[in-house]
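Example record

The entry below shows one chain as it appears in the dataset: sequence first, then structure tokens.
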Amino acid sequence: MEQYTVTGMSCAACSARVEKAVSKVEGVTSCSVSLLTNSMGVEGEASAAEIIRAVEEAGYGAAVKESGARTEGGAETALGSGGAEDALKDRETPALKRRLIASLGFLVVLMYFSMGHMMWGWPAPAFLAENHVAMGLLQLLLTVIVMVINQKFFISGFKSLLHGAPNMDTLVALGSGASFVYSTYALFAMTDAQMRGDMAGVMAYMHGFYFESAAMILALITVGKMLEARSKGRTTDALKSLMKLAPKTATVIRDGAEVTVPAAQVRKGDLFVVRPGENIPVDGIVIEGMSAVNESALTGESIPVDKAPGDLVSAATVNQSGFIKCEASRVGEDTTLSQIIRMVSDAAATKAPIAKVADKVSGIFVPAVITIAVVTTLVWLLVGQTFGYALARGISVLVISCPCALGLATPVAIMVGNGMGAKHGILFKTAVSLEETGKAQIVALDKTGTITSGEPKATDVLPAEGVSEEELLLAACALEAKSEHPLAKAVLLLAGERNLAPGEVSDFQALPGNGLSAILDGEELLGGSMSYIGSRTEVPEELKRRAEALAEEGKTPLLFTRAGKLLGIIAVADVIKEDSPKAVKELQNMGIHVVMLTGDNERTAKAIGRQAGVDRVIAGVLPDGKESVIRSLKEQGKVVMVGDGINDAPALTRADIGIAIGAGTDIAIDAADVVLMKSRLSDVPAAIRLSRATLRNIHENLFWAFFYNVIGIPLAAGVWIPVFGWKLNPMFGAAAMSLSSFCVVSNALRLNFFNIRNGAKDKKIKIKQKKENEAMVKTMKIEGMMCGHCEARVKKCLEALPAVAGAEVSHETGTAVVTLNEALDDGVLKKTVEDQDYKVISIQ
């Protein structure tokens, strides 16, 4: 996705206009504009020059967003360094504050003479008190000054109107401008009446002045804009705090000496050193030294992680105890921190499906309001009211209407929700993933590395009669020391924890599928399964029963003998993570069906499933079979897949939402929609909880935005005057407009106080599933797809069509199964795919 900075936007109508203009550019497959961050994300093959030209022709400005700068050495600066952080700096609030202070200075004087003197008899200089024309000219002059200070409303508003895309500034400019023009006319008419000696006419025209309304509207809207800008700036606090984590310098070893250089100049393969208390500058591998590293900045986990030679370290984490020397493995934009920042930033640039409702309304909102204002004015004139009275009602309609609240309802909540996730090590790649995660009905969990730790551990030590635990462990450790089997590591780890030093064996042999044999001090050592050891020595019935019980629990019993004598059993298992049962329970409390996928045999799988508390266990699933299991689960509801390995990538892609555990592979992380920086399963219910809270906040914002306009516009138009006598002054209309956007943004900021770990208020949400007859399915036969990237490209272009609910694409079978919400001509489907340089053979 190519990101651009867009200038000149003031409301949702502006962002809708820009989005519409860029979407028409040939080669653009998708475009989303964020009013919140004044940014635009574009996907496709169109050039930057064409996209910028389209934005400029729509009446706005655009430039390619700089994500990192090249240095002479070829390294790239991290996203977290100056440029990107500077791009998020709040420049709008200080400028609006200066404008507001200047406006208020002249507005106070204007209000003194127009309201204080004329309505309440406050004292004024004699030449003004006695000369009504001079009083009118003074009000005119003060109003012009306020209008010049706030000229941006008029420039932007009328420019948008000329481009056929009126926006919020147009409403403000028309409202304030109409007040000023009518008041100026009244001033000239009053002057004429005074020259004719018609004092009754003079007083009538003087009371028709709306100079103070013209100025007050501009000042109040500026107040609202400043509050809104200040609140919007706070929504990006999480992203800015991530950027501030990026270290500015690094101590590298050049020609055998330590040299301090900017972090941006560290190259891949450079050796760098980190002392206690210092930040690690780039991602790297420890090659010398040991330390404890605080990774809370990236994972939210406060407990330091021990690091030894061979372990990975990440940029922005803090070395707490020892001196370490590392080799740079990822620099610039490739560091973990930069990738997190990019994910959060990209998510802010994308658009949630729910935002499309507000966008459609915003596109026609301003023209509709202008029409309502004109009709309101004409109706009041037709019923016999004065032009000044009718105009006041029309102006009230213009200035109370607020498309900004509609446009901000979704993006501010998405930005705050995303920032909250990032703070807790939960990264949503797009706004769609943040919205859709909370709608999960089924969560499929890969067993190894997700429910379990992924590393076998010795869980039980059962010595035979007359044998001590130490004797059993010493023999087992001596035998397993030369084995490369994962189960051997578990035995060695246990011996190491007990500080046992095994003897040296000779004649070591590994017998595939059976066990191990070796000679220790002239005696034969054997180790292996029950069947293997049972064929070499007598195993008591009691130990057989205990071995069987261990196997029922999903553990692997290893038996050991020395000189033909049975020493006992050591049970090894891939133990479940401490938080897995609690996480599964939390998911079930949310009304979610939890399924475990594993390649293990059914007995072992069911044992793990019982410990974890899952609803269903699907065992014996081959690596390439997970994708088909997810496909079948999707027929029962919306599926979230959680995994960590390379073999989970197809299933993560196939699921409605793929969640990658942080300790997983890069391939799994690339395929996922949500990335958990920690390897804790409890982050899955936390992610779903955060998604639901964000969606709930968006609904609240949209309700307020719609409700405000539905109530405010009729009130401003004077609908209730004949019934209740309610009449709205244009100045109060402007104040209400200012507060509406501020309320929406403030409501979104409440998400910052949401506790994503607290499941006390979890609700079992029932999502209405589509009936089979509501959707139409077409299968396309496509030639030319060679890999997963081809699949993604075809899927993206098909799902960009409004009539397409979803597309399941497979390059292996050469098909795309397209689900439609409404009838769509086959020719449109064919052209859409063939525009991506693939050939459509048939559509059924």
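Notes for this example: The two ends are 33 Å apart (CA to CA). Residues 68-83, 767-775 have pLDDT under 50 and may be disordered.
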